[in-house]
Amino acid sequence: MDTLHTMNKTGLQEHYHMLKGQFDHFCAQNISLNMARGKPSPAQLDLSMDLLNVLTPKDCLQVENGIDPRNYGGLDGIPEAKGLFAKMFGVRSSQVFVGGNSSLTLMHDRVARAMTHGVEDGCLPWSKLPKVKFLCPVPSYDRHFEICALFGIEMIPIAMTEEGPDIDEIEQLVREDDAIKGMWCVPKYSNPTGITYSDEVVRRLARMQTKARDFRLFWDNAYAVHHLTNTPDELRNIFEDVAGTENENRVYMFASTSKMTFPGAGISAFISSEANITAAKKRFFSVQTIGADKINQLRHVRFFEKVGGIPALMKKHAEILKPKFAEVDRAFTASLAGKGIATWTKPKGGYFVSLNVLDGCAKRVVALAKQAGVTLTTAGATFPYGVDPRDRNIRIAPTYPSMSELEQAMKIICVCVELAAVEKLLAV
Amino acid sequence: MDTLHTMNKTGLQEHYHMLKGQFDHFCAQNISLNMARGKPSPAQLDLSMDLLNVLTPKDCLQVENGIDPRNYGGLDGIPEAKGLFAKMFGVRSSQVFVGGNSSLTLMHDRVARAMTHGVEDGCLPWSKLPKVKFLCPVPSYDRHFEICALFGIEMIPIAMTEEGPDIDEIEQLVREDDAIKGMWCVPKYSNPTGITYSDEVVRRLARMQTKARDFRLFWDNAYAVHHLTNTPDELRNIFEDVAGTENENRVYMFASTSKMTFPGAGISAFISSEANITAAKKRFFSVQTIGADKINQLRHVRFFEKVGGIPALMKKHAEILKPKFAEVDRAFTASLAGKGIATWTKPKGGYFVSLNVLDGCAKRVVALAKQAGVTLTTAGATFPYGVDPRDRNIRIAPTYPSMSELEQAMKIICVCVELAAVEKLLAV
């Protein structure tokens, strides 16, 4: 078939009726599928059932620093859990603060603290400034944007390239504007594009000159070990680039086990320079908490040992996820390839496929899919303020549904993408 | 023996040398005991070892609302956990938000939010006000004071009576000063006095007129079920007093299982009016978290069922704790009664004995005890800014040490109390 753009009006009208018929057929089936969020599937959660019973009473008496993990204390976590994250990210244990079940909470709390207390001695709390701005690569993670919105932080969208966010533009902006205090980054298998920042982008982010002395990279390393191929992307260790430089305190890394074990019951980490960790413990964490759940930390450490290490566990996740991502690509290719109405990513890791439809059609596609029983991520959610200026990006989250549900959902999505495109072309 | 106050100088000097001999003897023994914090003892923690393995894989599939507790979602907690707290405090489940392992975090976060966003529509964020003040009954819990200090909230000490904080003074202050936005309360078995607020005090706190429309009671119900006798205190349910009044949103209650199961690995709750909970979920919690650890919530629910309910478990705690509190009273009575140099509380619940020594002697007693190997809570910690104006209050935390350690520690403390008193009397 030619691209839809070369069809004449009659051809488009006939095509519209054919698609509308398919669409109505789906609508009549009372389908209800939710693909809005990047949630692991029950089959993935089943991989971690040994978490429930992996700890023996004896384990509780054998924590490295002699602390009783059941009791109060141990503000920054048990040594074993700090070591787990340190090893995963190539940092020292002294750079790790282990948090509760949510790295989102650590991110939110970091911004909240910056608002009320600032991030560095001698710098004002951000709430005392007339304006605070964050750079936001787009498309990206809606919950980052919601944190900024809550605290009134202005978001500046930065276009993504295949190498990561447009580093030339970033360097220029941060050099000139001291209101720019932060930047959200999902540096590996980015949400939703799947892009991993190149070595050069990482290096330049680490070394660039910023007018604001208290500029921070919010480095959300959510998908560090979440590969979908046997040739995983490698993300440059940004801590090696800032170490020993005047930017040593620039990086706030966040991570969690949410998509390794149980998303609702994992452990998280805040990773930064030793100076930042020491200051945060002294000035903030010690007032907010007596320490996160150390039993759950120990539970995770022992569980990862039991399954032969995190990479072994993540391979099992990948085995479940690969066919799903393959199905997304297969369905899009079968239905949409060559029609000039959509492009999509083929990620090597992470939880999403980023779909771009014709300009002005994303909201319509999501609305149509909803009507046919498939809930997608809200159109625009991947942009600051929920506004996609071209109204074209849709985040596809194929992990949660079963294969048969996904196949059905993809059929529906493909019809909706094409239907919205034809509607647009007919309206011109 | 007469009170020390009636001894002549020679007698006091002789007494001093006798006490100093005992003190030096302790110092020579290289004792190291920590009684600084209200921590459960290992024997108490052992009561909850079934927590580790109480959950079966099947349990994870049987949550009341059909949610998978392993996965994301369920912002305010699983129904079973909300019901647990609702039953404990005589409120509706819709008034409960279940948090992570620390009620301190919920308290801190509530104050932090009030600073950045305020607590009620139409009221300014507290950080935009020239001054924010909190009423602080004294002596009380140092971590409450640290939260105020962190956010620059001025603390106004309020004297405690046998009925709770001086309600006449409170009513007058809040009626006249709209900078008073909050009050810290440990309404049952207060930290450290053990006092439970009387019905009248609770009712008047609920109903008093406050100049600030956004005044809040921070109701830290930490020791609700932590009885030490068979005739427990009963705390009036303050939610019944505010229900249906214009003060319906006044109460922020906080609670946790920290001193029921594992202090480091429990679950917590924020309990308030339905309107407050709904607003907090929508405006704040949903940006900060996807929900606390639901597996740990389910674990606690099942564990409490297994041990026959919370009261049954708390009775076992009381059996361990009663002899320790009895020992504190026995030792003080044996060594200090009738000497006119100390008074102490005999709490019916909670975790502390409040000791008042001669004015100006608390710091000295704590320093002497430290020298002899017993770490006590810092003198002054029970007051705002760490300053006890009479320098007389010491918080005794007898729960953690073993009985033999406690006996030894009490001998040392008693000698230090008397030694400091004699030093003072000799110096006059």
TrEMBL record, chains A, B:
Alphabetical list of CDD domains matching this protein: AAT_like
Show the Pfam families listed in the entry.
Answer: Asp_aminotransf
Alphabetically ordered keywords of this record: Transferase
Query: In which domain of life is the source organism classified?
Result: Bacteria
Among its keywords, does the record have Hydrolase? no
Q: Which InterPro entries match?
A: AspAT_Ic, PyrdxlP-dep_Trfase, PyrdxlP-dep_Trfase_major, PyrdxlP-dep_Trfase_small
Output this protein's name. Alanine-glyoxylate amino-transferase
Q: What species is given as this protein's source?
A: Shouchella lonarensis
Phylogenetic placement of the source organism: Bacteria, Bacillati, Bacillota, Bacilli, Bacillales
